[in-house]
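Changelog note: in this version the structure field was regenerated for every chain. One regenerated record is shown below for reference.
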Amino acid sequence: MRITFILHRFFKLFIRLLIFSFGLISFYGCEIFPTLNKLHIDNLAEINIAICIADPSSSFCETGIPNSTTETDEGTDSEEGEVPQEPITNPEPPSVIEPDLTPPTLISTYPLNGSSQVPPCDGNPCRGRIILTFSESMDTNKNHSMDIFVSDAGTFLPVSNNPEFVWTTTSFANDTLNVFVSWYWFPENSRLQFKLDIENLMDSSGNKLLTPIELTFATTVSNQSFQISDTDVSTCYNESGSVPVCAVVSASYPLQDGSLIGTPQNRSFEGPILAGVGEHITRDNVSGLVWATCNIGQSGVGCSGIEEKLNWYQALNACHSYNMANFESGYANRKNWRLPTKQEVASLPPLNYFNPALDPSLFPNSTSSNIWTLTGRGTDSFGLNFAWNLNGNTGIIQNSMKTSTSFIVRCVSSQALNLARSFTDNGDGTITDNNAKLRWRKCVNGLSGSSCATGSVMPSNWGNALLECEALGSGWRLPNYHELLSLVDNRFNAPSIDPIYFPNTSPSSHWTSTTSADNSKNAWIVLFSNGASNPVTKTSFAPLIRCVRNEP
């Protein structure tokens, strides 16, 4: 009996420990092990019934365990020492983040592929740039490369360039790639092609761009107007080339360039100016342009050394070495050196020098070598083979084959674009250049009307051209070389002049009042077929006449 009693007591103790363990698991286990909430509480109730049959006096029989269908009222008091149980809820399963497997796409470009009339620079500072905008944030920690080509008449030729890649934000962080060409400006009147290596172009999740990037577009010339300075010609001539006193020839050859000192304003260059260790510049105070005193290949205050001869394709990137000089702080502390435009290089020669055409006190050791410009002749099949240059011997503006290897580079720097061309039609047959403060005859001599369609052109020799403009009175005169050249606008072709303000202009040559320093029997003319210039004999009857006066 005693053994049976002991076994009975041991069985009751074992059952109680078992129920207590199930209770702990039911109360706490669901929080730690969510799958335990599936344990049905009826199993515990069955164990409790078994204990009550074995020992009716057990405390488990007094409190019991509610079955699965019994709810405990919120206000029911718990037995002393027991912890009220909170309702068991199933936790929400953790959300699953889907990986980004979508490759990025190119959604816009500047310039547009296939576009024309693209300016050589834009933005502030004004630079030649390509802008690529993508559909999402991109990985900015990769290196990129781009191949750049310039077209001749038959194909695209690779040219040297060291582009700079800069990421910016448009719609998403770092979704826009800016590519700045090391030429600083795009070449004018040219067809360009850009191919970007997409191997390292990927979004922030590592998805690579799948579509190759290739842009082709054509450029135009910059629309800017420069203040006009005098030619520095101070001697008067007749048609035979003799050198009389200006007052003596004023009746027969009136208001020629040599008699109008400082017209429309004095020429003002200064240099060489020391602007770095052994680095010199020459400043044009009228146009605001800053020139390297020496050509590429020369150095020092006297520009010692041999100037480097390059073809046009090589010349495009030649000034980049100036921008990278002095550990990339720039030659003479400037980082915007580039090849000059046709319009800019035309301001260099003062026209009272010959062989070389530049003032040797401002540009020492200058030679008669031709100076390349950034400006191509045109984007047609013929013009793509040629680029404009300054004849270093005479100052002639001419175009030559881009493959010519005997030309040199003189770099220019400009802090900002000059004012855009601005004309006003006065409604009385005259046009005002608002920047240069000059008033022009809308039509060449012999034509009239709002569209210059009435009458016929009247070519003249140089002496008669001077007289015809002077006969208009009120200060009308034949323009000097720099004044007439300012009307050339190579955004237009044949004629190279704005047709809105100067309609029905003949593309032929027009007289200037400036005598050639090379041969005083010749005077300078400007051809409005393309903006070229050269001296011709003063007795020629081919050139036309467009008169000018200072703005009242």
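Spot check on this record: Residues 24-42, 63-79 have pLDDT under 50 and may be disordered. Residues 308 and 390 are 16 Å apart (CA to CA).
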